[in-house]
Amino acid sequence: MSEHQNLMVCTGLTKLFGKKQALTGLNLTLGPGKIVGLLGPNGSGKTTFLKLANGLLQPSGGSILIGGHAPGCETHSIVAYLPDRMYLNDWMRIRDLVDFFADFYADFDLAKAMEMLQTLHLSPSDCLKTLSKGTKEKVQLIVTMARRAQLYLLDEPIGGVDPAARDYILSTILQNYSENSTVVISTHLIADIERVLDEVIFLKEGELKLFDTVDNIREREGKSVDQLFREVFAC
Asked: How many angstroms separate the CA atoms of 228 and 221, rounded?
């Protein structure tokens, strides 16, 4: 990180799907040690942005660099990605999943994963097909946050769970990322996560509408991020 103090640099980042522009000329720089809210209505480009950052999609124009590299083999070792869809195989036991992550990622902290599972009263021998949807989402988050990554990309981590589970997920995120890492959280539930955010990104129809610190927004606008979001994206 000493050579690349900026974890992520987007320059004119553009993504097309046919004739539809999912992202248009995005210019953005993220440094270390932040929790960043990626905010916008459906179809604003949030998931596309996270997939570009994780190398699952390729830009149609412009560039995105993670730690000085285009997303790919070099960046997978520093990026931990939680997709917005369930990807776990029901035939697996929790232990199978944990072992898979431990084998695949050199930065995976097995002790941390087991500690988080114990907090949830989950046994490594539990089969995934016996777990509720919400519990599966927690397990998916645990194996993501158990990595000692530099950049965590979390797509709707609290979207499908009840309010009590949201508190657990937010506390898990806060307690398990290092001060030199950055977490990007995509969500519609702004009021639920605003208290943990340092910075926010507003996307609308693929364009960057705002990138600022939460403190600046409150001081300049005299309102919460949730209130400002409702004004910017009012129908």
From this structure: 8
Fold of 8-85+148-232: Rossmann fold (3.40.50)
Residues 6+ positions from 148 with CB-CB distance below 8 Å: 107, 108, 109, 178
Q: What is the largest CA-CA distance in the chain?
A: 52
CB 143 within 8 A of CB 93: no
The pLDDT tens digits of the residues spanning 148-196 come to 999 999 998 877 667 777 787 888 888 877 778 999 999 888 888 888 8
SS3 at position 131? coil
132 near 106, Cβ under 8 Å?
A: no
SS in 3 state form for 202-213?
EEECCEEEEEEE
Instruction: Please state the pTM of the whole predicted model.
Output: 0.91
Provide the token pair at 193.
């996560």
Highest mean pLDDT among 6-15, 134-143, 152-161, 173-182: 6-15
Q: Where are the domains of the chain?
A: 8-85+148-232
DSSP 6-66: -SEEEEEEEEEETTEEEEEEEEEEE-SS-EEEEE--TTSSHHHHHHHHTTSS--SEEEEEE
CA dist 151 and 149 (Å) reads 6
Question: Of 62, 64, 55, which Cα lies nearest the Cα of 29?
Answer: 64
Residue 20's CB: how many other CB atoms inside 10 A? 9
Q: What is the tens place of the pLDDT at every residue in 102-118?
A: 999 999 999 999 998 99
